[in-house]
Amino acid sequence: MICLLHKNLNLIVLFIVLSLSSMTNAQEPVDERQAIIQLNDLAYGVDWTYDSQFIAVGTLQTLSIFDNDLNQVSTQDGVIYSLDWHPSENMLAVTAGNSVEIMHWDAETLSLTILEKIQLSERVYFVRWNVNASKLAIITGTPTSQFQTGLDVAEITIWDGITFVHLQTIPSRYLFLTGYYPTTDLWDWSPNDPDLFAGIGNSIRIDGDFNTGDDVVVETDTIIYVLDTVTGERIQEISVGNGPVGYSLAWQPNGDYIAVGGETGSDIFHSETGEKIAGANGNHFDVFSLAWQLDGTYLASEQSIFDSQTFDRLGTYDVGDVRIVLWSPDNQLILFATGNKELAIFALE
């Protein structure tokens, strides 16, 4: 009788363990590498088509299109700092020196055709459509003289996303940004309001006599600036904290939170109140890229994956020196571009 009871208890314990194990596996992303390739240069811009069928990759040498197995299906010469697919059509916006080219992608002939060219006065480092493609944000600037990995923003220009007519210019007196590149993850449109645009900047305070150098103290505060692109005004300033500027910013798909990546991890702030909600700090190294899964399940911070509700760290992917992380629009794949000039794609169950 005692032996039989002992066997039954063992079966019950085993059943509970197996049940808990399957629940855990169902909640976590699956680390299953689908493809990996070596690029000819660092990837500065990477984006998926709206239907998750193709990936555009821009380097300082080429603009290439890949399928989801990372087979290259199209390539052309170019110096690409940023690119962005239209959210619902096969149109690609690409930086090209002091201009932005709007291209049509033909998925049957696997070819790109220039439809429109927007000319700017300075080199373009960033381009992105807003949530409904009614507007296009373009950022121009020059590398800082002190740090060649920094970028002084000259101005943010807003363009009509259909006619490509200029709508608004936001000069640097409203928004000064310095960030690390190759990455254009310092800026993001609101997923709810097509007129709101957010970026990371530095608030700098200098005490003492700067001319003589006596008792000079320089304090910096990293700020999230939320801009109204209709008026060009700041409508929200969220203090991230003292220290160096953040490296990446991503607005949660439902609009409630903004995640900021910095030197030792990521912090999450409420987009309206500015309250710090959580810290997704499992990396202990610079976070150059952040990405929310479009269905809101996960937050990718470098190669670490966090639960988007609890912000608990769920695990990591086997990649290093991540510069860009990106979810496919259908939520089935995650892509990493690394400082080792690699592209890697992992599949999710």
Description:
The protein has 349 residues and is mainly beta. It has one helix at residues 2-27; strands at residues 32-38, 45-48, 54-58, 62-67, 72-77, 83-85, 91-96, 99-106, 111-119, 124-129, 135-143, 151-160, 166-171, 187-189, 196-209, 214-228, 233-242, 248-251, 257-261, 266-270, 276-280, 290-292, 298-301, 304-307, 313-316, 322-327, 333-338, 342-347. The strands form seven sheets. The protein has a four-stranded antiparallel beta sheet with strand order 1-28-27-26, with no helix packed on it. It has a four-stranded antiparallel beta sheet with strand order 2-3-4-5, with no helix packed on it. A hairpin with a 4-residue loop joins strand 16 (214-228) and strand 17 (233-242). The longest helix has 26 residues, at 2-27. The radius of gyration is 22 Å and the shape is globular. The two termini are 44 Å apart. Mean pLDDT is 80; it is low at 1-27, 145-149 and 173-183.
CA-based gyration radius: 22 Å
Relative helix content: under 10%
Strand order, biggest sheet? 1-28-27-26
Oligomer: single chain
Shape call:
globular
Order of helical and strand elements:
HEEEEEEEEEEEEEEEEEEEEEEEEEEEE
Mean pLDDT: 80
Strand content is over 45%
Helix count from the secondary structure assignment = 1
In the predicted model, the low-confidence regions spanning at least 5 consecutive residues are 1-27, 145-149, 173-183
In short:
The protein is mainly beta.
Task: Name its key features.
disordered N terminus, globular, mainly beta, 349 residues, 4-stranded antiparallel sheet, 51% strand
